[in-house]
């Protein structure tokens, strides 16, 4: 038996990796089984493979022995590593995803029987609130709500604080941070990153080995090293953060990125840390370059929402993934893959995802989750779709965001289901409704915007369940005044039937 192996997963590429402490070598694994476990977006495959290979190279340059294995499965790679290096101890940061964590803990017990100790580090730079800290905060609370969690985080971490009080005398600027698209300024473009030789080779490999991957592999524009990620963050802080707050909820058909940071993909694999991102925003505010509403809006996303969903996930797994409060069972429509639909907002969004493996928060919420609820899509199937197509998607963040905002979890994450009709989509967007086949002002008829028809139909179908939620009371009052419900419901049923038939036909064609 010889020494300690640091096992480093592809989503834990930290500059300061806690598992390296006292390690003699590193094991990193590219598992073919994992890479082929879903129809991942081509750019997600490129991103992960390029980031892992760059990371291994950096470790080697620091004089660290890296056993980088490309194997049919993680299991086989681990077995081969143990046979070759005979470690007496393996140490790793606990996996962020429930299933991987469980597998790793079972393996630890098996290895212990063979005299190999598996040690899980306490420290994990990916989160500012550890699982046990969140569980302690949650204990005894009847309902978990993001806002009090966020305030607790602000106080204990000290971001934008004046003693025990929030700077500016307010905890949030949500009212100011919802400006519609009518006033949207032009955003500076994202930095243009040219893929280096290593990334270029990965792009060719993905093109060759994953010809059926979803989406376009190029242009690939994302950072894959710590240095590039740091520069990416710096450019966001200098060029886009100032307007982040005011227009964080606005959408534009011409610019999917607007004033967003496009940092989730980097935070979720350790190329950036949440502390780095929140510190950078705080420093920019202190230098006087950034309005408080923008610094607060961004820090809220990082230390509030991101940490909150991680805590909710770990508190409720594994049962969380199975929930289906509204008993919705429709398949994901085939146009979610092809983008072929006359609904311009959705067609544009799918086209953006195909090109960039990205959209910002509001298309995910106001268009895709909203549509998921209104069209009664099966929550697990929709989560699976989200997992495949977004570059920043991982189980711990996708489950609570999709199931939580759908309200499939019955209110563990959000206080009400996210549903909206075309009026709000129209107000918050530019370039969708103005050029759509459908009319955002109509509820019934062939040209009526499906969001309107389905919205009223959703409220009518679930009125009984929704009536128990006081936040839905005002909305349900509107339903009582609707005298065109029979026509709305007939049209809603026809729309859902068409999408289900298209999906079935496409599945048949594939088979
Ligand atoms: C249905 C749905 C699915 C989502 N799936 C994912 C996902 O798979 N991976 C993911 O990282 N985020 C997910 N989000 C959250 C959020 O939409 C993305 O983090 C964000 O759009 C990424 O773009 P950005 O980096 O430009 O974010 P910005 O708008 O610049 O926000 C800054 C950062 O805040 C964090 N953040 C903000 N909101 C959330 C949130 N609700 N949950 C977690 N982190 C948040 C992210 O790390 C993000 O990078 C999802 C949201 C919804 C509604
Ligand atoms: S009219 Fe309806 S379907 Fe068309 S873009 Fe607007 S919200 Fe989307």
Automatic annotation (TrEMBL):
PANTHER family: SLR1343 PROTEIN. The keyword Lyase applies. This is Cryptochrome/photolyase family protein. GO terms for molecular function: lyase activity. It comes from the Bacteria. The keyword Cell inner membrane does not apply. It holds the Pfam family DPRP. InterPro entries: Crypto/Photolyase_FAD-like_sf (IPR036134), PhrB-like (IPR007357), Rossmann-like_a/b/a_fold (IPR014729), UV-DNA_repair_photolyase (IPR052551). Keywords: Lyase. It comes from Candidatus Thermofonsia Clade 1 bacterium.
